[in-house]
Specification:
The protein has 277 residues and is an alpha+beta fold. The protein has one domain (22-258): Sandwich (Jelly Rolls), CATH 2.60.120.620. The chain has helices spanning 12-20, 33-52, 77-81, 84-94, 125-128, 177-183, 238-243, 246-249, and strands at 24-27, 58-59, 64-68, 99-108, 135-141, 152-154, 185-187, 194-197, 203-205, 216-222, 235-237, 255-257. A hairpin with a 4-residue loop joins strand 2 (58-59) and strand 3 (64-68). Helix 1 packs across helix 4. The longest helix is centred in the N-terminal third of the chain and has 20 residues, at 33-52. The radius of gyration is 18 Å and the shape is globular.
Length: 277
């Protein structure tokens, strides 16, 4: 259900310029709305299941959760993994040996508050010393996003900020906030849009004043030297894995198991639990 990419070529220089410059790029109308609606139905069911399971949904602040999932538990994994734009961005930024290491979703519910500005994990030496970005995060919203729904906010260019004063390498001091607020861009994608970004670019979820949840799928992808797979537990059953094209099997870091095992989330971000003070 790739809506706008048939025969389309994507410019490597434009991709690199966006990721290395502002730290985020996007593609409008990448998927059909009907396909996104199906994805949203799957996420709704998985979210309800996760809330009933100890440790199934990890808090990311008041009324906000993250759930890591098994790719085969959604009907659209193959379409995501083979999307031409996602593949083009990964090849351009991470190289041809890129690996999908994470799939999950964030749900900011009504009443979610402003998160503190943060990175999703500390910057690696590849970035601090080598000035190279070796991981990407892709987001696919399952709803049309409006101003009152707690849109994602990002401070372009801050993937290069010095983290020496950041708590845990992730949370900048509040003295930095005015700079981020001055740069901040609120993203209000519609169903079918994709964004790709460096998870090191300073960002936050904002307060959800609406009566609607804002679920968004998250896909994490690494270059060969990145270590983010250690924070996750991507699994496929042998039967499902055998159905995937070789091109997809080549681009995942995973365990192949007889039966799927519950995911023990290893990437709890304690600094997000209370929201912005």
């Amino acid at each position: 259900m790739h809506a706008t990419t048939q025969g389309q070529q994507f410019d490597t220089a434009r991709i690199m310029g966006g990721i290395y410059g502002e730290g985020i790029i996007g593609l409008k109308g990448a998927f059909d709305r009907a396909w996104v609606q199906q994805l949203g139905e799957d996420i709704t069911g998985l979210y309800q299941d996760a809330l009933q399971r100890p440790g199934g949904a990890v808090g990311r602040g008041p009324n906000r959760h993250y759930v890591e999932i098994h790719p085969q538990d959604i009907r659209g994994f193959l379409e995501i993994a083979t999307h031409p734009w996602i593949a083009a961005v990964c090849n351009a930024v991470l190289g041809p040996a890129y690996k999908i290491v994470e799939i999950g979703f964030d749900v900011p519910n009504p009443g979610a508050v402003d998160q503190p500005w943060h990175r999703d994990f500390p910057a690696p030496d590849a970035t601090l010393l080598g000035r190279r970005l070796n991981s990407l995060a892709f987001n696919i919203t399952t709803v049309d996003v409006f101003e009152d729904m707690g849109p994602f906010e990002i401070a372009p260019g801050t993937q290069w900020d010095d983290p020496s004063e950041f708590e845990h390498g992730m949370f900048p001091p509040k003295t930095c906030y005015p700079r981020y607020v001055e740069r901040a861009e609120r993203k209000m994608p519609h169903m079918g849009d994709i964004s790709g970004r460096s998870a090191l670019t300073l960002h936050r979820g904002t307060a959800n004043h609406s009566s609607k949840a804002r679920p968004v799928l998250v896909l994490g992808v690494d270059a060969p030297d990145a270590q983010n797979a250690a924070r996750h537990d991507l699994q496929f059953t042998q039967a499902y894995f055998a159905t995937l094209p070789e091109t997809v099997r080549h681009h995942v870091t995973c365990r192949v198991v007889d039966q799927l095992e519950p995911i023990v989330q290893a990437h709890s971000i304690e600094g997000l639990m209370m929201g912005e003070a």
